[in-house]
Amino acid sequence: MKLKNIFLIAACLIFSCGCYNSNTIYIAGILPLTGDYYFCGNEIKNGIELAISKRDTILDKKIKFVVSDDKSEHVQNINAYNKFAANKKICAVIGGGNSILSEDIAAVSQKNPLPVIVPSASVKSITEYGTNIYRCAFTDEIQGVYMANFALNELNAKTAAIFYDMDNNYSTTLAKAFSKTFNESAKVVIEQPHPNSDNDFKIQLNKIKLAKPDVLFIPDYADNAVLIIKQIRDMGIKSTILGSDTWEEVIDGTNDKSILDGIYFCSHFSIDNPDANIQNFVDEYEKKFNKKPSSFAALGFDATNILIDAIQNANSTDMNAILNAMAKTNYSGVSGKIKFDENRNPIKNITILKIEDGKNNFFKVVN
User: Fold this and answer.
1) Residues 179 and 258 placed together within one structural domain of the fold
2) Pick from 346, 365, 225, 359: which is nearest to 292 by CA?
């Protein structure tokens, strides 16, 4: 056999085994590091890497994080899971970057299940695919309930309006949950939908203006929210504006940040929360990555620590042992104190932020 062919065969063998060894615990990540959802993917990855850097040895073995960039694409996402699931050295998967990509992973994982913990996805259906799926973020329904209770209990609102995107499942789900909870103690005076294609909301907003609600809940993505808020201010609507967990980036969507003053929205985390555990995380993240962490980074950090705890408590990398240990989670993290309910969704606190002076300011933690 020619020497060149021997080298080629050796190279193929090395590639196929991926240089995995028995003295290492391998955790896979499937995240959008490029493409439309690159921001959340890279922030989650940073959170994962920080968590592992602080706890890189358990069960007398090193932890190795192996990440695949799904490029924000469904096919790449599914292929990445199948590749990892076929590799018997991989003991668990952290992914995906958002609800859309996480649902891909949850669905395909049922053919060849590994323990999967989803950091940031909030759509309810994800954990319903199988008992191998856990999540770190609160669900859409829960944040709708939280924001209604915040309006009732903290703002003493008696009336509310809801302005939502009728073509967006995220928006309609939050609207429905908010409405149900708020109407149990007060009154939603108007629920106003708009098509996803709209960018002029004056007709719908005028109806809300005439209703004069105490609060106006707008469960929408940040780019839409900025357009809506500008028109609300131009029309002189005085209602207190409430947003949802996608509003962290609203302040980056306008040069006139004064239009955002007085807005409240919910999130998983705030860099200004004085809690010592959170401030240690913020400091360590900033030293490692030279920037402040986002909620995505916090959720990636917590999801990783929950998984590492489960492996350590199980004293095993066996799938069933890890899943049984995860079910018993009682974790105090930077995105809240987390236990799991019977559907593997987190029971946790929610953070309320208030926008003032062009900044997302920590307001309070709601239990």
Assistant:
1) yes
2) 359
